[in-house]
Design goal:
Blueprint: E1 6-14, E2 22-31, E3 36-40, H1 47-54, E4 62-67, E5 70-72, H2 78-85, E6 88-91, H3 104-114, H4 119-132, H5 149-161, E7 167-171, H6 179-194, E8 198-202, H7 206-212, E9 215-220, E10 223-228, H8 230-233, H9 237-242, H10 249-259, H11 270-286
Parallel strand pairs: 3-8, 3-9, 6-7, 7-8
Antiparallel strand pairs: 1-2, 1-4, 4-5, 9-10
Helix pairs in contact: 3-4, 3-5, 4-5
Length: 287
């Protein structure tokens, strides 16, 4: 099965409130199938509106969005939006607040069951989804509300993954999680990406974007300012300031080392930066 790409052509969107504000203005963007895309920008920049359009939750005011072979525009029907959503899974911020069933298995099975899948297919989907988020099968009979915060978050994500979307949208997936739960969840998402899932990550955590994304989409006041690899986005401190973005820790430390006379190759990863420093120190000891 060919994985769907995403093509956004001259898309604008206005909320019909008293201000009739333009949330997106003539956005053009192509996302390759299998990409890991960080979508960043200040609050109100248009990030959530953009992914809501990709998920078919709203229609564009102008322009078109194509996901695979499905194209939607201002006049698209509810059925066309539904067809688009079959490709896309959307994990909202704090998804554990949407858990409702008496046990984990029933909660994860809800989506596939509503798709009309057979009982055997639903059972397999639940099994696979638990594996994908790194949770043991023994949790299936447990109440989701008896689990830790990180486990509840992963159960909620498993409910989306059980429907086997080709594209996964995650809105601040690590908000409120401790360091260990954050690491586990980001590792699981990276594993999904390695298996071919297209990941769209909305986050204010630039370290996560720098470490995992292969493309960064920068939004500012409804405009797409730039779409480029993280090495390009985070190379210009003035650009980051102008668009209200923080510098990833590895990049910031690398700059500080450079000002102190220690020049190291650019890197987006703290682990890689540490390895470079160790190599440099060992080299000096040998000398």
């Amino acid at each position: 099965m060919v994985k769907p790409a995403i093509e956004i052509k001259d898309v604008s969107f206005s909320y019909s409130d008293f201000s009739t504000r333009q949330a997106l203005d003539q956005v053009k963007l192509t996302i390759k199938a299998g990409s890991y895309v960080g979508i960043v920008g200040h609050t109100g920049s248009g990030k959530s509106t953009l992914v809501s359009l990709i998920d078919g939750l709203i229609r564009p005011t102008k322009g078109t969005i194509r996901v695979g072979s499905v194209v939607v525009g201002a006049s698209s029907s509810a059925q066309e939006l539904s067809r688009l959503r079959r490709h896309v899974g959307y994990v909202f911020q704090f998804p554990e607040q949407q858990l409702f069933a008496e046990n984990v298995e029933t909660d994860i099975a809800f989506g596939p069951t509503n798709l009309g899948w057979s009982a055997a297919k639903v059972k397999q989907a639940v099994h696979d989804a638990l594996d994908l988020v790194g949770l043991p099968q023994t949790l299936k009979s447990r109440s989701p509300f008896s689990l830790s915060g990180g486990q509840m978050r992963r159960v909620a994500i498993a409910g989306v993954l059980a429907m086997r979307p080709a594209i996964l949208i995650l809105d601040e997936p690590t908000a409120g999680l401790d360091a260990m739960a954050t690491h586990q969840l980001m590792t699981n998402i990276a594993h999904l990406h390695a298996q071919g899932t297209t990941i769209l990550l909305i986050t204010h955590q630039m370290d996560q974007v720098a470490q995992y994304a292969d493309q960064v989409v920068v939004m500012n006041h409804g405009h797409l300012v730039k779409a480029a690899p993280p090495q390009v986005i985070f190379a210009d401190p003035n650009f980051l300031v102008a668009n209200h973005l923080n510098m990833p820790a590895a990049v910031q430390i690398n700059h500080q080392l450079g000002r102190a006379g220690v020049t190291l190759p650019p890197t987006m990863s703290m682990t890689a930066l540490a390895d470079q420093l160790v190599t440099r120190l060992r080299g000096r000891q040998i000398e």
